[in-house]
Amino acid sequence: MDRLEQFEVPLTQKNAIPQVMEKILGKKVFNVHIERLALDYRRKGNPHYVCNAVYSLEKNSGEVPQNFSTKTLLEKYNKNKSMPSEISIVGAGPAGLWAAYALLLNGHKVNLYEQGKPVEERFRDIRRFLKARIFLENSNIFFGEGGAGAFSDGKLNTRSRTEFSQAVLGDLINLGASEEIAYLSKPHIGTDQLQFLIKKMRKQILELGGKIYFESCLQDISVRDNCLNSICINKKWQPCEALVLASGHSARNIYDMLFALGIALEGKSFAVGVRIEHPQSFINETRFGRGVDYKLTGAADYTLTGKTTYSFCMCPGGVVVPCASEKGGVATNGMSYSRRNSPYANSALVVPYKIDKNDVKSGIAFQRELEQKAFEMAGKNYSVPKQRAEDFLAKKGGDLWDLMPKDISTSLEAALYEFEKKMPGFIKNGLLLAPETRTSSPLRIVRKESGESVSVAGIYPVGEGAGYSGGILTSAADGVRLAFSMLWQ
Ligand SMILES: Cc1cc2nc3c(=O)[nH]c(=O)nc-3n(C[C@H](O)[C@H](O)[C@H](O)COP(=O)(O)OP(=O)(O)OC[C@H]3O[C@@H](n4cnc5c(N)ncnc54)[C@H](O)[C@@H]3O)c2cc1C
């Protein structure tokens, strides 16, 4: 196969890349496999794609690279290690779903327990929450089938792609996601697509013989001689040899339980701040320039880094959602649909919140304090406090200065002026909503290289709640990786 790198693709020819290559090379090309496609908008007014692709000059020559999946990865590495035949998994978020899928593919029996409801029922609960502010503790934006990722922006970003994250992207394509996610530099799915894919993942798990128990909450664990002995689900104890703990970073009751059992936990730094919302038209014009067909580019995003504050989880064409996992507390987050066609863009602006490894209590306490304060300030109805960026800087109304600790507010104040220089109009057009507290896990459940807890044999912490991943793709990839490392022990 030959390779063509860093070639320009006009926006209108995104779906005709072989033809673009033929024009550049002056030859017919076959078996084109796109490796990477990124939107380049450094030249204002002329955004275009930059592409890397491999191809052959003869129809039947060269082996066309294929996207791989968890199944092909297992075939490549499977060492058929004997391990507990029945594995319990707690949490049906990306990490739990993909751990279940990989273990089932390898022939193990899997029982997957999720405290929330199937995604379609959960969707109705969330709609009621967003419209009528009826909050349910086990069925909300964080909890239920699909985990925190199901009602999200559905960005599938990762800083570095691994075989495991590529396999997850391949699985999503096999489930029906667009092939583009394998090569786009910033793949995005959106809430509507995610729900559809999660339902298909459930079907696949059931077809492989997995059992899924909804509204089934892990309440306790019993340990004997540093080995897992049994688990308590909905007040019923049952023997358990292997437990994959994929409960996410908002399962505070799980952290309390692990702490009480003396299982090794470490404090982990995370970030705290606000969401800022702008008209999408302002972001499009600032990033792409005027006179551009934004239907072809899609909604523009941005990444900003200041002295102490940075943008995080930017959602172009999305909405800010209030979210809660506990009664009487509320935080912000962002979500979008696959078309990213809301007239607004939002992003978190966050400041690192440092936590010492030995401090396993203060991270959650700090999150909870801010979330409860926000709940009180915004009228105790799961709305979030908001304030125009200009008013925040003028200290008018004072809302967010009263909510956030002074050092964080001062960092945000400085960052707004810094970001205004990079994107003029950032302040005037900005609405702040707060607090953004659930950026990543405030704790790590310490595990060995094998994925097993350092304290108790048979417990395998995985995903964002374990503190080893952040985001949908890396959490799902951690689930797959865990299944492999269990096989390799
Ligand atoms: C609104 C929002 C938008 C987001 N946007 C993005 C985005 O665009 N891109 C991105 O990469 N990431 C995004 N994230 C983060 C992403 O969703 C998480 O990183 C990811 O879901 C973590 O996966 P996980 O499987 O480790 O945990 P989770 O998704 O948190 O899943 C954990 C599951 O465990 C269940 N559980 C917890 N305790 C128990 C128990 N005791 N018994 C039984 N079940 C239990 C929970 O109900 C939950 O369903 C967003 C998050 C939110 C909330």
Description:
The protein has 489 residues and is an alpha+beta fold. It has three domains: 2-56; 75-264 and 444-488, FAD/NAD(P)-binding domain (3-Layer(bba) Sandwich); 270-436, no CATH class. The chain is 32% helix and 24% strand. The chain contains 14 helices and 20 strands. The chain has helices spanning 17-25, 70-77, 94-105, 119-132, 163-175, 191-207, 252-261, 280-288, 294-297, 362-377, 389-393, 399-403, 406-422, 472-488, and strands at residues 2-9, 30-40, 48-56, 86-90, 109-113, 211-213, 218-224, 227-233, 236-239, 243-245, 265-267, 270-279, 310-315, 318-323, 331-336, 344-353, 386-388, 431-436, 443-445, 459-461. The strands form six sheets. A five-stranded parallel sheet has the order 6-5-4-10-20, with helices on one face. A five-stranded antiparallel sheet has the order 13-16-12-18-17. Helix 5 crosses helix 14. It is globular. The model has no long low-confidence stretch (mean pLDDT 94).
List the helices and strands and how they pair.
Elements lengths: L1 E8 L7 H9 L4 E11 L7 E9 L13 H8 L8 E5 L3 H12 L3 E5 L5 H14 L30 H13 L15 H17 L3 E3 L4 E7 L2 E7 L2 E4 L3 E3 L6 H10 L3 E3 L2 E10 H9 L5 H4 L12 E6 L2 E6 L7 E6 L7 E10 L8 H16 L8 E3 H5 L5 H5 L2 H17 L8 E6 L6 E3 L13 E3 L10 H17 L1
Parallel strand pairs: 4-5, 4-10, 5-6, 10-20
Antiparallel strand pairs: 1-3, 2-3, 7-8, 8-9, 11-19, 12-16, 12-18, 13-16, 14-15, 17-18
Helix pairs in contact: 2-5, 3-6, 3-14, 5-14
Bound molecules: flavin-adenine dinucleotide.
